Amino acid sequence: MDRFRTTGAARRLIAILVVLGIAFATTAAMAKGDTTGDPPSAGAATPDAQSTPDTPAPAQSATPPVSPAAGDDDAAAPSATDDTAPENEGFDYAGTVAALGEANYPEKRRIVSALASHPQAHTAELLAAFADNRLVARESDGKVFVAEENGNDYDLRDPITFEPAGRASTRDFDPVRTNIGLRQNIGAAQAQLKLSAEDAETRLAAVETMSEKLDDNAADAMRAHRASETDDDVLEAIDRALAINDLNTGDNDAKLAAIERLSGDNSQMVYNRLKNMLILIPEDTADADQARLRAAAAEQVERIDWWRTVYDYLETLFFGLSLGSILVLAGIGLAITFGVMGVINMAHGELIMLGAYTAFVMQQLLPGHIGLALVLAVPAAFIVSGLVGILIERSIVQWLYGRPLETLLATFGVSLFLQQLVRSVFTPLNRSVASPEWMSGLIRFNDLFALTANRLVILAFSMAVFAALILVMQKTSLGLKVRAVSQNRDMARAMGIRTQRLDALTFGLGSGVAGIAGVALSQLTNVGPNLGQSYIIDSFMVVVFGGVGNLWGTLVSGLSLGVLTKFIEPQTGAVLAKIIVLIFLILFIQRRPRGLFPQKGRTAEGS
Amino acid sequence: MTRTHANHGPVLTRMLGDTGSLIFVVVLIALTVAIPLCNLVAEPGSALHVSNFTVALIGKYLTYALLAVALDLIWGYCGILSLGHTAFFGLGGYAMGMYLMRQIGDRGVYGNPVLPDFMVFLNWDTLPWYWHGMDIFAVAMAMVVFVPGLLALVFGWLAFRSRVTGVYFAIITQAMTYALMLAFFRNEMGFGGNNGLTDFKDILGYSLSSDGTRVALFVASGVGLLIGFLIARFIVTSRAGRVLEAIRDAESRTRFTGYRVELYKVWIFTISAMLAGVAGALYVPQVGIINPSEFSPIASIEAVVWVAVGGRGTLYGAALGAGVVNFAKTWLTGAFPEIWPYALGALFVAVTLFLPKGIVGLVSQLRRQIRRKEPS
Fold first, then answer.
1. Which residues of A touch B312 (CB under 8 A)?
2. Using one digit for the tens of pLDDT, what is the confidence trace for B182-212?
3. What residue intervals traverse the membrane (chain B) (predicted)?
4. Which of A90, A99, A159, A485 could form a disulfide with A71 if both were Cys (CB 3.0 to 4.6 A apart)?
5. Interface check A419 vs B, CB under 8 A
């Protein structure tokens, strides 16, 4: 509307006429649309508005009204008459804005609220400026401006039209101050302006912002808006916000009704209000109504508490599964090299570490493509760690088959070597691998239950890797040969399997999977030369607990150890939980030396 | 691995009938006598003088050597690979450390006559029960052998009874020392947490910083190693020692012959743990600190490598390996700190691939080759 470059009352008159015209057109269209038969004046006046004595029924007045005195508290009195924005007769917008200059905080709050209920073209900008502390008042006459600092001067703008209004020394102005509470009010007011946005998402966000600081004005605006709202989610959010508002300000019946309406709601906000109610109403209250209210609130609190316990358990379970999935990832490669081939590879942890560094290097090679680099790092890490594994097998392990303890020492030497190599190349400092957007943040299921995205992704990834590995072992000729050799090496060789080549490939496969585990771990911890060390004992435990030579056993044991650890942790703390699990494992292995799912038959007796 | 055994005759000839063992004992005694003399009598600056630093260093090697002998006793002679022997070493060390802590008395930073500094720091007002009596030397020394021995007895009994062997045993011992390390890192355990026990002042009333005490500790380490070696030799040359070797080479067959394999194993494992505990107790006053990193699985594996480098199944080879590897470590970490991990890693690989019998095996092979050449 800044095309109307006129001044004073004339401008206001034109504006109101235009606005009225639009209002008529809109309501006519709406009436046609849903045939509710509303009067074209759009006078869906709320009871509040009608009961406000000093507001003339505005829709009927054709003449521009004379506003109440500027700065008067009543200027902020609710006079909202419709959900559609342009119902501004009877409201002195300019006067209200001008009153900001000398208002105290409660007045400012009311003004902000009133402005949001009677928005004009630049109200949003005005509120934004206010929130940014860019509103100033001239010392001489208290006139309010939007100011932009420019050296020692302000570039001024009119707060209503946002026309430039010259330049003046900062010394002649006082800022219109805000505080945290007021800024929340401003936020709610800004949200209220967005209530009429086209986009349902924006409206939903607006309702949620408003509900954090809902005053009567905003509640009225929301109530008014509710009539025209079509989106179910937004409607629900509005109902909830209004019900919560009723919990605070309503009378006894309204509160009861609100509790009833909120009975499916587990959010922190509702919980706090209900708890508060329990504190405010004494337990032995004589008032029957109050007692009923208290009972209703207590019931809801109890219900929410119950759900909280349930979701707490679910969350612990998830953390356990998440830890378990990491253990499975770390252990599954070992399940192949140790379980299937009987080779103790102490360098397994370092192969994991190499995978993690591969992820780091990929991100350095593809700056700006965090997600792509990470996805590409999976095959790259498989290849890098796999090749290193084959190298280890060909150069060292192949000479030591049948001597597991010697293999252990030699591969431990390799692990020291690799650690130092990484230290020399990448420095001993920890590197961090960035997380792509789809792996960061929370995935919220409801008010009480949210899971971290990266852990969820890693859980799924771990299961996928496991499934792929099972497929390789069960459905490919490589898998068939690996199983044959692990069962009876001599017989397999007699059947024409080139066992040497196969050993190298199997070792490479296990090592490559370790590399993949490293990529996943790089999303959870910093990548450093000692990364592998911290997983080697856990990996061995998982494999031995599950039963050597049994991939499914590794899966079950990894997940159950993870869950066990996480369920012990709240009682004992992380370190003690780990110690307890280790002791449990030591005792378990002594009871059942071959793990949960031992291999049966003649082949199992060999080692 | 055939060896001739002198199972007849006096004990001493039996134990020292082996040339290598005899040389080892002679060299060890010579070292134990000569180095203190060179330190105390020879003038500083003369070619024969041995500095205090070197005395402490060699003293430390001697305790490592005792740990290696303890490991070789079970690994070399009974085929039990323990990757958690530093757990026993550390426990013995902590027992000694507790005694030394109590000797500080009110000379600590906080001046509390009973509570060690770290307990005052943690706002504890009473001594935990297991710290009582540790101010008496005899009690502390009993604990040095008793605690590791008890742990080994229980752990070994549980493990060997259910026939946990080989790789599985190695892994659970590793888990044991790892769990102990985590436990000792906790302040609530009452062992000084992360920092461990340190700031020792004196032992049996003698200041730990005086030259005389240092030399005495060195001699004690030498004597400790000697006694430990002789005990081990006594065991392996006895009838029971032959059963142990039989278990190593064919466990099932030994069992079927009628021997209670698990009893032999538990027994030798416990003795080995006690020796390791003594080694730890001798180690702590010489280095002046004990902390949970002594329990780290890596340290255990390193100890196994000393044995492998020296040559397992000979006892003196293990002691030799501990000395050689640690000397190389001291030298390399000083001269080329970057190189040491590479060298250690390469050493692990090279020894297992090319020197399955260690340095001792290499020496005897060379001797055999020389002898074969001589007649021609």
1. none
2. 999 998 888 988 889 988 988 888 888 888 8
3. 20-42, 54-77, 83-101, 113-131, 137-160, 167-185, 215-236, 263-284, 339-363
4. A99
5. yes
